[in-house]
Every structure is written in C-alpha cells, then in structure tokens.
Amino acid sequence: MKVNNLHEQALAIGLSAKAIRLRERLLEVTRNAGRGHIGPALSILEIIDVLYDRVMQIAGPPRGQEWANRDRFILSKGHGCLGLYVVLEEKGLLEDLDLSQICTYNSKFGGHPESAFIPSIEFSTGSLGHGLPVAAGIAKAGAMKKQNWRVFVLVGDGELNEGSNWEAAAHCVKHKLDNLVVIVDYNNMQASGLVQEVLDMRPLREKWEAFGFETFEVNGHDCVALEQVLNMKSNGLPRCVIAYTVKGKGIKIAENSSIWHHKAKITTQEIETLKADLYS
User: Fold this and answer.
1) What residues make up the domain containing 179?
2) Which residues contact 59 (CB under 8 A, 6 or more apart)?
3) Domain count, the chain
4) Burial class, 206, CB count within 10 angstroms (exposed 0-12 / middle 13-18 / buried 19+)
5) ω before 203 within 30° of 0 (cis)?
C-alpha cells in the first residue's frame, strides 16, 4: 500500500468509544498538570492501548515472579507519556499512584516517565535516541537467559535523526534479536517542523530492511490492523512496524498542528475547547 494512502487513512479513520474515553481522560490529566505534550500523546494512544490490551503478556501488578516474566515496553519518545499514563491507569498498572496529581508537588508523574517512581515504567526516557539501545540490551539479556518475553519499543519519526538508533539497529540484527519489535510513530512532524524538512529519513521502510529488519507498514490508529501485525510470529529477525499516525489525532484543531506539540501553560478554557472539538 502506498505511503500517502496510509497517511490519509490514519487521518480519516474514526474513533471507538474507548479511544474517545482515553482521550477525555488524557485531557483531564493535562488540565490538572497545566502543561504537556498533547499532540505526540494523541498520535500513539492506539498503539499503546493495543500493546497492553491485545498483544503483550502482562500478569499481575508490577512485582513478583509473574511480573518478572512479562513482556517489556519502552516509550523511547518519552514526551508522549500522557498517552502511556492513561493506558497504564486503564489497565490497573499504576496500583495506588494517583495520576490526577500529575506534575504537582511530590507527584510521581512528571512530563517524562520515570522508572524510579512508577514501577510499571521499564526505563526513564526523555533524552531521545536512548530507548532502542536499551531495548536491544534487554532483548539480548532475555535471549541469553532463554526467556520467552518480548521487548517492544516505540520511537518517534523525528527521533530517528539520532544516530544511536541506527547503531542499535545494527546490533539487533547482528545478534538476531527476534524477540524485539521497534514501532515507529510516523506522524510526519517533530518539534521544529515537518520531518522531511528537518532531516528527511525517507525511504524509511527500505532503510530498516537494509539493516536487516523484517519491516511492515500499518495505519497506526487502526486497532485491528495493529493487533494483527504486532502479534505476528517472528521469522528469526528483529521487526520494525512503521505506524502511520496523525499528530493530535481525534481533536481537529490539534491534528497536524505544531502548536500542540507542547505547551508550557495550558488553561482550563483551552482544555474545554479541545474537549468540545473531540466531541464534534
């Protein structure tokens, strides 16, 4: 399927009742925080929800032997953590932590996820280009220990400008890490402009395939398609799933808008405007 068709489908696809509910909660949390990366969080909501709800094997709270055998997820584009937080809350993986207190004094929840404070966060992220190298190490450790758990890492398309990703990719292929899946949030935007204008990484699929990854393309807001491709069995190679998404998906005034990449101050009125646009 042509790339432009996948982008168009990502923009056009509707939202389920659950997708709307998660977005409502995300906006409530953002109102409490008074700041945040709304656009990046909305582009990855379906990806993270499908991972935790339909793909990854996770049993019990973040402790004990069952938790030790879990599949791992790393949100390398840590600034999109609002999307991760609301999914973890939905799945009951925050235990007694109160997400409503995000970004307040003594809260465990900040503008980037921190594993020291939230047990269900695998690795603290925020400095871009670190998630895939760490995920590769975790996947290698699992292979050496002959464990069956898998490692999923979600990176941003702009984040692929960081060379550390490609060093890690070469490492993944050399060590045949077929327990690792890289997911690229391809919303075609980054903080300072369109991806192809800042540093064009196209053709992206061919790059991953040249490194030796089994590579797929998918509409990143189509939960059925995401579930299908993320649950595919490996053929002995690490995998890359390029998920075509829309920055700010579901809120028309925020879609494909750099204004909502990040705002250091978000008013209650702005949140109400976003919620009204979500409902329309």
Assistant:
1) 3-279
2) 66, 67, 69, 70
3) 1
4) exposed
5) yes
- Average pLDDT estimate for 62-85: 91
Between helices 163-174 and 131-144, what is the axis angle to 10°? 20
Contact indicator for 29, 99 with CB cutoff of 8 Å = yes
Interhelix angle for 38-50 vs 81-90, to 10°? 40
User: Which token pair is 19?
Assistant: 């997708």
Give the position of tokens 């047990």. 119
Three-class SS state of 65 = helix
**Helix spans in the chain (H):** 3-12, 17-33, 38-50, 64-68, 81-90, 131-144, 163-174, 195-199, 204-211, 223-230, 268-279
> Position of tokens 């990484």?
201
Which two structure tokens, joined as six digits, stand for 191?
């903080």
Model confidence pLDDT, tens digit, residues 125-144: 999 999 999 999 999 999 99
CA 59 to the chain's CA centroid:
21
Alpha-carbon torsion angle 227, 233, 237, 242, nearest 10 = -10
The CATH number of residue 126's host domain is 3.40.50.970
pTM of the model: 0.95
pLDDT (tens digit, 9 = 90+) per residue, 19-64?
A: 999 999 999 999 999 999 999 999 999 999 999 999 999 977 787 6
